[in-house]
Amino acid sequence: MQLNQPLNREQLECIIEGAAFLGSGGGGPLSLARPLIDYMANQSLWPTVASFDQIKTGPVGTVAGIGSPAAASGGDMGFTRAPVRMVRLMEQLTGSSFRCLIPGETGPMNSLIPLLAGAQRGIPILDADGAGRAMSTLGMSTFNETAPVHPFVIGNEASEGETPITAQLTLNDPSQADAMSRSIVSSPAFDSAGAFSTWPSTVEALNKVVVHGSLSLCFSIGTILRQSQAAGIDPLPALAEQPELKPRLRVLFSGPITGVDVDTTGGFDRMTVRLGKKPSQLTIMGLNENMIAWSDSASSPVCMGPDSICYVTTDGHAFSNASVEDIMKQGKTVHVIGLVADQALKKPSILRAYATVLAQLGYAGCYQPLSAEQGA
Fold first, then answer.
1. The CATH number of the domain where 295 resides is what?
2. Angle between helices 214-231 and 108-121 in degrees, nearest 10
3. Does residue 134 share a domain with residue 14?
4. What pTM did the predictor assign?
5. pLDDT at residue 334 above 70?
6. CA 226 from centroid of its chain's CA atoms
């Protein structure tokens, strides 16, 4: 992927597949991202990705989807209108025209949505984001270090001919933003999914706090996966040798998915995913995104957020929790891979945000960092 040049369809396909791997089970379903690429191709909307070396100054906007991935994947949530509507509204509220956009997180939809909105606005997208993975709550973003959660605008993806619904919120902190936005997307008008924009900032400020190179990494991983699919080979050896993954990667488990429990409420999918059978079972728990993994063979968690818990099948397909039941029904063998979190996510405020979600999932202990050196 060449920076500062329009992306093509093949490159966008690589980005969303890599994002499905890096998203730690979240970031939106591939089943919605692929039709969005179809739309971009039909409209000749080819986005441009730029680095912080190429764009050094100017106002930056963030836009993302929010809500239940299971609900979104089951409905007609095209996201072709709401995200760019939120961007334009944020520009009006801040009194500035954005020089560029930046993804809030990594995932099939939330890496792609800013690329579409940027192409619609005719502005580039920065090669970075606020997490390097998908997040359960806004408090997990590195953007909070330098940008406020106000203004905060959220809107539904109205069908053609329907009047769209938009809410503008006055908020003091990310926890308030989470509570209010999840309440809004849980309403019938939103059907558990919508688009939002917040964290208005500048290139100069964000450069100090973001996870750099996230879209380039998505592309690199997606390229490996698509090559593995074409060759009919397991992608794990190539992923383990990918230069940026190699020092971060640990195989947590390989085997079939044997059980899935999902409870969708309050704009979240509360997930429990089981792989293998006792006494050698791996259990993953999450809130939209994978947050913690337990093994029958260990007395403490084998991986927990902010470290990532990623899925890829032995035939080269990464997927999110929105597709986990389908993968189980297909009986595919899955590699569960832990990735050491970017250092930007190890700051106390972000660790506290993860600890809050982990406590909701029944874990009240301290953060235990993943060590890639522990091996498979």
1. 2.40.390.10
2. 120
3. yes
4. 0.94
5. yes
6. 20
